Amino acid sequence: MRFVADFIGALREAGLQVSPAESLDALKAIKLLGLESRQTSKTVLALTLVKRQADQVIYEELFDLYFAGVGKTKASNKELNKGSNKEADKSESESSDNPLETKNNPHSSQADMSDGEGMQTSPSSSLGQALGKNKDMSLAITQAAIDEKLSSIVLFTQKNYFAYKIMQRLGDEALSAEIRSQANSLEHKNSLEHKRKQRELVKARARLLDQVKDYVEQQYGIFAQHKGLKYREEYLQQAKLSQLDRIDYKLMQRLVQRAARKLASQHSRKRLTRKRGQLDVRKTIAANAAFDGALFHTRWKATRIERPKIVAICDVSGSVSRVARFLLLFLYSMQDVMPKVRSFIFASEMIEVTELFKQQGIELALEEIMKRWGGLSTDYGKALAGFQSQALAGIDKKTTVIMLGDARNNQGDGRTDIWEKVFRQSKRVLWLNPEQRNSWDSGDSIMSEYSPWCSSVEPCRNLKDIERIFSRLLKHS
Amino acid sequence: MFILKQQISVIIKHQEKIASPEIIQSRYEDLGYICSHSVATSIYLACHLQKPILIEGPPGVGKTELAKVTATYLNAPLIRMQCYEGLDESKALYEWKYGKQLLYTQVLKEQLGDVLRGARGLDESIARLHDFGDIFYSQEFLEPRPLLQALQSEDGAVLLIDEIDKADQEFEAFLLELLSDYQVSIPEIGTVKAVSTPIVMLTSNNTRELGDALKRRCLHLYIPFPDAALENRILATQVEGLDSQLREQIVALIGKLRDMPLKKSPAVSETIDWARALLLLNVEELDSHWVKETLNLLLKFQDDIELVEPEIKALLKGLR
């Protein structure tokens, strides 16, 4: 069972949310069906532990890594075992029958190690004895790795260090000393028998070292790979969106979606609040049945408060386009709580992209938008005029307008009059500026011309900002 | 083997039926439902661990069918609840029989005289009233809806909560008590526990992400489109009299269509419909004429049809 617990630990490291209750389910299920069949265990653990389709890939990768280790030691044991004596065979088969179970009592292997003492011409170090008997060392290695806290491995540079530490714990010092002393002792130098023995010992040590290294490698794959990812993700949360590398886009998209999902689930329950509306006849009769049908209490139909209606306008020129990309992604990942989103993008023309997102899926559509319009020069005046004709009529007192732009208008007319109309018609206008506060109004930025007609103007530079802004937006709606 | 202490009656009655995933798999096959090993394992675990199963997958892969077959297999009634937006507890769990309640108060009023006869003072009258017993809110006047029916079912039932993703999130939260403890709370009566634990299956088409709390309480089964071999077997059982060569061609073609960037990939149910149609039309071999004529059975969007039509020849060439 320790195997399953370790495996769950590895899954958690990789970012899957496995609750204790689910772990218990997995253990119960494994008890029912056993771990003998790899396919069955894979199915069983997937059924109980993996609840999101997106996590399936990580799960399979980890599972294969984990079981590959188990399978390998099994196979190598069998190979080593060929031609060894019957007694060893027996003990071998006992231990390899179910390598997972035996992990529970690693001490038994240590006890076994010492009983080789009686053997004549056997090596004097206990590790040497164990190797001499062709014992299965994988249990001992596992135990040593646990003692050395191998699961805390983070960087690949630590691999050799851990391999060394594990060897030490297995008793490598004594073994090496023995090999050295045998090589130096004159008395044995001429004896063929001893030479052969010594060579065997050296070989066995090399084999063990390989095995340990393999094991460390495998554990690194399980525990560390995703830890690295975690560090990277933490960094990305704070990173400036406008300076993000292309390489990080994929990872960032995942982060954005995760953050959006979290926010969506937090707020979805606040959505429904009751308000007095129409009389609910059925419920009223039910409530007053006790009074002989005389209607004392009235029951009202619950009316839903409108989910926030959002119009998003994104500048996709130059450096703003990168921020726009993630803002839009965030917006669309929250469709559960904000289903009514209209989105517009502009450089000089205002273009509605709501339909495009619906048809192509957000990621593809974003690629296309950035390719076609990203990087053009901006004309706020022209764009706002376009917005007026396309969407102004649809803006009412329930609408929140979100504008993402740096307000750098290349000296043109900003048409603030249109923005004023938008402000007066809507419930609220948020202006998100991807630049920091002190560079607003510098150069060709005309932020201060727009800001009187905004409910709030805020810098929006990293994922944390986006998350904060939307969290507030949902709270107030 | 590890055996759970509180076995449910469905299982006691059918212990041998659910002895192992392999048995389930082969018996389901006899019933005409070909399933993969992981599906059978999930049913096995659901019975033994008494856990609901959350079934996800593209439409038409047999999610609802699985519940139907399970009910048939275990000789248990299938109680189905279709979810939709706005579904609330009075439609899912219980409702009071208002009409009867009103009649009851009328009857009560007539009896009131008898009950209170000879009572001295208001205190005694009220004391007598209290003794009279109140059945206004009681089982008598309770109209059970699907969820309550499933809990009250004597021999256990298979409860299918279909398309849970269509219901509101509030309803999802309301289901949690049922899913984890097999009980529901009715304010006027108290907690109603399951007479015998039903087997609960929830299906979802993933129109929205379900809550973590719900997922945590369920086994999670994802049914993908079947692979060619499995689909071939499904066709063999569902459409009798289909030539085996034609069958292979159909399966291969469908597999290729699923690899294309379609709005809606053809599902298993559509494969079956198509095969039946071809059989009816006495088609012996797939050719571009017949495929073109019957394509609308497979593809439900005009865009998809337009995308596939020019490719038909190339697709068919690959089959031979």
UniProtKB/TrEMBL annotation, chain A:
- Extract the Pfam families matched here: VWA_CoxE
Q: Where is the composition biased (Polar residues)?
A: 99-112, 119-128
Annotated region (Disordered) at 76-131
Q: Where is the composition biased (Basic and acidic residues)?
A: 76-93
> Which InterPro entries does UniProt cross-reference here?
UCP010256, Uncharacterised_CoxE, vWFA_dom_sf
Fetch the PANTHER family from UniProt: BLL5662 PROTEIN-RELATED, BLR6139 PROTEIN
Q: What is this protein called?
A: VWA containing CoxE-like protein
UniProtKB/TrEMBL annotation, chain B:
Instruction: Give one GO term, molecular function aspect.
Output: ATP hydrolysis activity
Pfam families per the UniProt record, alphabetical:
AAA_5
Every copy of the AAA+ ATPase domain together lies at: 49-227
Q: Which InterPro entries match?
A: AAA+_ATPase (IPR003593), ATPase_dyneun-rel_AAA (IPR011704), CbbQ/NirQ/NorQ/GpvN (IPR050764), P-loop_NTPase (IPR027417)
Per the record, the domain of life is Bacteria
- Give the protein's recorded name: ATPase
This protein's species is: Paraglaciecola psychrophila 170
